[in-house]
């Protein structure tokens, strides 16, 4: 009987490993086949204009992409490779973190759980500030745990650096400091570190690490901090309850973690909470540590989603501690169920990437951008003295900048907030009296004809605006999939422009 149980255990382990390897293979195929996303192009645009920080995010994603494209080449696959390799390092760091809390085999199971999620696939495929954030966040948890349990100044200093690098990746890293302080206050065993030389050492190295980002914000009127804080807080303060946002966030997180992990997260929290209430005591030190780096960020963003559109990636760092905690309770059967769902979802993703059976009615797609750039190049030959501008936040302008040799301009040409383009092209006086081609993405098109409507935002800034034939991107069967309206604009009225740098937040 013992032999039968052992054989069953090994067969179960082999199945889980086989399914995980299959997920990894499918992910690699998807990385290789997936085209450029607007986010890839935008953060590559960061990397072409290296700075201490940027309008809407800190600089780590820019440095990462610059490193890989300098070593290899400027190519869509290389950008994807940068994300995938960084995410592999994040998983390695996660395994060492998990081993601080779990036996080796359970740490391996936790690695499989996290490594097979859509969240990790997303990080591997798309350039986001979350790619370096998750790496440095995971390293921070590992080093903070070692620092707290050894008292070593070396680990406290290293933790200060990695927390700082997390902040230099994305501002949500402030939850690392919140989690640390919360844990130290709640843990009677480690409360001594709240006011200690070790904490001072961490703060010194943290401040040194983030000082370039702070200095850049100081030199640029704090626009990055203000963009990420006061602008959003004004919308949140309106307190417009939106069930659509709340349930949309639940759906997004359900997809990122997948059903087994998502449900397990709340079940484990319930078990831990119930046990603490029955015993009328705090959870043990390791469980408390994980909860403090998981609950605050999850609780905050789930609450926020009731009044504000929370992007799915904002919660990603919280799931590092959550998956370790879940690994304490999940059985091999749960792992197999999770992997089976993962295989199905990743097969569907690969089919979507390769064959594109369901067109994405949004600019957040990888499909058709290279074809758009080729068509714009043809237009550029017909109108050689026209500069090119697009106004959809950053997406079309960023992608065209990636593929084309000349600068492509964004919404600040029309007196709007062009995000990083507004800083890179802060002075637009050289465009005065020039003609332009305006490219406008039309996601909800019903035909391939001209719109016969002039974009109102163009009229104050040009003497004449004329609509040209649209650019229509078709699939292999000739079916229209994407449509871009094109306008020829004569004589740019630079003097009419409300200068972005005078009040960057309002425009």
UniProtKB/TrEMBL annotation:
Keywords: Cell membrane, Glycosyltransferase, Membrane, Transferase, Transmembrane, Transmembrane helix. Its EC number is 2.4.-.-. It is a multi-pass membrane protein. Residues 56-216 form the Glycosyltransferase RgtA/B/C/D-like domain. This is ArnT family glycosyltransferase. The keyword Transmembrane helix applies. It is an enzyme of class 2 (transferase). It is found in: Cell membrane. GO terms for molecular function: glycosyltransferase activity. Its main location: membrane. Pfam families: PMT_2 (PF13231). PANTHER family: MANNOSYLTRANSFERASE YKCB-RELATED, MEMBRANE PROTEIN. It comes from the Bacteria. The chain crosses the membrane at residues 12-31, 77-98, 110-128, 170-187, 199-218, 250-273, 285-308, 314-330, 337-356. InterPro entries: LipidA_mod_glycosyltrf_83, RgtA/B/C-like. The keyword Nucleotide-binding does not apply.
């Amino acid at each position: 009987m013992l032999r039968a149980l052992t054989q069953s255990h090994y067969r179960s382990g082999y199945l889980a490993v086989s399914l995980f390897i299959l997920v990894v293979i499918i992910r690699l195929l998807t990385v290789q086949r997936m085209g450029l996303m607007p986010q890839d192009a935008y953060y590559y645009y960061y990397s072409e204009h290296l700075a201490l920080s940027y309008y809407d995010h800190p600089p780590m994603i820019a440095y990462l992409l610059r490193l890989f494209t300098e070593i290899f080449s400027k190519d869509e696959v290389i950008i994807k490779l940068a994300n995938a390799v960084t995410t592999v390092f994040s998983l390695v760091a996660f395994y060492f973190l998990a081993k601080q809390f779990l036996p080796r085999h359970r740490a391996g199971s936790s690695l499989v759980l996290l490594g097979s999620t859509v969240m990790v696939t997303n990080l591997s495929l798309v350039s986001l500030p979350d790619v370096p954030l998750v790496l440095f966040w995971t390293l921070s948890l590992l080093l903070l745990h070692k620092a707290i349990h050894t008292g070593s100044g070396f680990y406290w200093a290293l933790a200060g650096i990695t927390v700082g690098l997390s902040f230099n990746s994305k501002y949500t890293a402030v939850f690392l400091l919140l989690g640390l302080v919360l844990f130290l206050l709640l843990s009677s065993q480690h409360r001594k570190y709240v006011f200690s030389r070790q904490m001072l050492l961490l703060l010194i190295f943290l401040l040194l690490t983030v000082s370039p980002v702070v200095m850049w914000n100081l030199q640029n009127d704090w626009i990055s901090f203000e963009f990420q804080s006061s602008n959003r807080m004004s919308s949140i303060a309106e307190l417009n309850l939106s069930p659509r946002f709340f349930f949309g966030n639940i759906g997004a997180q359900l997809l990122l973690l997948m059903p087994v992990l998502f449900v397990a997260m709340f079940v484990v929290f319930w078990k831990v909470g119930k046990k603490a209430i029955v015993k009328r005591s705090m959870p043990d030190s390791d469980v408390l540590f994980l909860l403090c780096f998981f609950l605050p960020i999850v609780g905050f963003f789930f609450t926020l989603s009731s009044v504000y559109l929370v992007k799915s990636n904002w919660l990603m760092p919280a799931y590092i501690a959550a998956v370790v905690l879940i690994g304490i309770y999940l059985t091999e059967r749960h792992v197999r169920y999770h992997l089976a769902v993962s295989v199905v979802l990743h097969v569907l993703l690969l089919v979507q990437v390769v064959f594109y059976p369901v067109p994405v009615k949004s600019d957040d797609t990888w499909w058709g951008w290279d074809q758009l750039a080729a068509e714009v190049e043809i237009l550029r030959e017909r109108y050689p003295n026209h500069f090119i501008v697009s106004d959809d936040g950053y997406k079309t302008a960023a992608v065209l900048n990636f593929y084309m040799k000349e600068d492509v301009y964004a919404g600040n040409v029309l007196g709007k907030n062009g995000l990083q383009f507004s800083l890179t092209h802060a002075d637009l006086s050289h465009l005065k009296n020039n003609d332009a081609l305006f490219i406008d993405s039309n996601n909800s098109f019903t035909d391939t004809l001209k719109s016969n409507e002039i974009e109102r935002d163009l009229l104050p800034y040009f003497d004449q605006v004329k609509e040209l034939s649209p650019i229509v991107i078709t699939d292999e069967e000739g079916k229209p999939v994407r449509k871009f309206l094109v306008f020829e604009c004569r004589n740019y009225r630079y003097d009419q422009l409300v200068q972005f740098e005078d009040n960057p937040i309002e425009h």
